[in-house]
Give the backbone structure.
Amino acid sequence: MHTVTALIEKFQLLPHPEGGYYKETYRSAEEMEQACLPGRFRGNRVLATAIYFLLEQGNFSAFHRIQSDECWHFYAGQSLLVHMIHPDGTYALIKLGNDLLAGEVFQAVVPAGSWFASETAPGGLYSFVGCTVAPGFDFADFELAEANRLAGQFPEHQLLIRRLCR
């Protein structure tokens, strides 16, 4: 049986600005030059990065977006709900977990530019997952949502936005 404390210690997880805990496990040694990337990137980026990510019940990963696709992977604990609002306002829910009969998946992708937040499913104690980002994650590409601004842009999702913003 894993515990949140044991996972934090074993994997040397650190608090993440969006909520939860993380540890970068991979950062490509190779870079792509800015000229080879879409215009939304400012500067060179490594080819890919990967992290462990841990959320416990009562905490959440606040709405944010990045400039790259982010592939999520389920490892342990209870299912993780990943709420997405795409640029056109469409809402989608990913149930990341190991209960395939309940519609959960082991892997899923949040497309670049989509707003997303996550939380452990109701009744769960924690969710231990991983994220792989390509081109690699850079905090210059990270935008944490401001609740009033995001709710004004997507009023049909304002209850969810206000609940999952810091």
